Amino acid sequence: MQAAGVYHGAHLFRRRAMSLRPLPHSAALNLYRLFWLRIVAIIGQTLAVGVVHSGLRMTLPIAELLTTIGVLIFLNGLTWARLQFAGERFPVADGELFAQLLVDVGALSVLLYFSGGATNPFIMLFLLPLTIAAATLPVRYTWALTALSIAAYSLLQFYYRPIPDFMHEHNGQDMHLLGMWFAFVIIACLMAHYVARMAETLRERQRRLSAAREDSLRNEQIVGLATLAAGAAHELGTPLSTIAVVAGELEHDLRGHEAALPTGLLDDVRLLKGQIEQCRQILRKLSAAAGDARAEGGRGVPLDKALLQIIEEWRLVRPRAQADYQLLGRGPAPRVVLDATFAQAVQNILNNAADVSPLDIAVRAQYDPRELSIEVADRGPGLTAEMLARAGQPFVSTKKGKGFGIGIFLANATLERYGGKVSFENREGGGAQVTIRLPLSAVQVME
Fold this sequence. Notes:
Mean pLDDT: 77
Strand order of the largest sheet: 2-4-5-7-6
Radius of gyration: 35 Å
Largest sheet: 5 strands, mixed
Low-confidence stretches: 1-24, 290-298
Helix content: 55-70%
């Protein structure tokens, strides 16, 4: 059964790798943050113009300043509309983010031109788009924006509209120092917030890339196992056919001589025939496993019947194992579609429990509107601390040299595809417990 699970796992993980959506481009997120940062800038610029013009009674070209701020508001509205269409089909490129920063530099230059040029303490705000560019854009864009900002600053040294009577009527030196302090506080806070968020975006992207690399490595391992399984299936076909013929002849020879045979011998032979047929069925499934294992778009079956079918199929393979099965949940059992890989994952865990505790296995399934959990508990020797730490890794077996170490690995990989996880723990009084948890929405059929 592990061979069939290997093949199904490789097939479905290949589909998953082909259908994986690319990691979202951070330029879209950066543009979204620039949109909100520009809102803060617009509010600050409007307040500054109002305070200087009305509060300090300084003469300013109000029409030009408010027109520039109005243009920024309009462009920011276009940016919001653009963000609604950002996605795989219309991705935000680095060049687009660079153009947005150019707009901010141009608008700031115009505002400073009408409010004292380089003598305005808010001239330091040129540093903010430069910081954003350095944190988010390629080097060529950063240097281009730097050159343009230096050019704008240099021109504002000579070309600007001065604020009339500023130095004489308002203790200009103190006001200038206060304005520089205020500008520094604004820039420091905005830079700290924005750069911290950018750094978090980069860290999250690195985490996702690392997870994608781990998934790719695991998929390669599964594909390698599938290749080995296909070869083993081809090689096992002949000896299994031979054993089936011999077992059939043995049963034929023993039939009618039950009284002279040891007790249960004929039943053992029939059991042997049944197990051989199960092996041959598994190999047929492995050879014919083309297409999807899951019935896409199917109506599904109630959860209680689906789980019971998995348990019954397992009992055909392990007829001498005894498992106490219980299903708990609130309300009627939801309808679900459980594919062959899910059944294989659960049965692999049941097989591990039967190997160490065939006569004392407890299976408890429980569901609520959000989650399905399945607990498989045994009364075997339990797991060592090392096994608890490494359980679920490929080629790590809990059977002390008697297993291949791929059953739990495949089960864990399959359940992660559903958004679930497998956890391991030792039971009080001896034994181990394996718990499967997955979102019910991953298997539920919506009526």
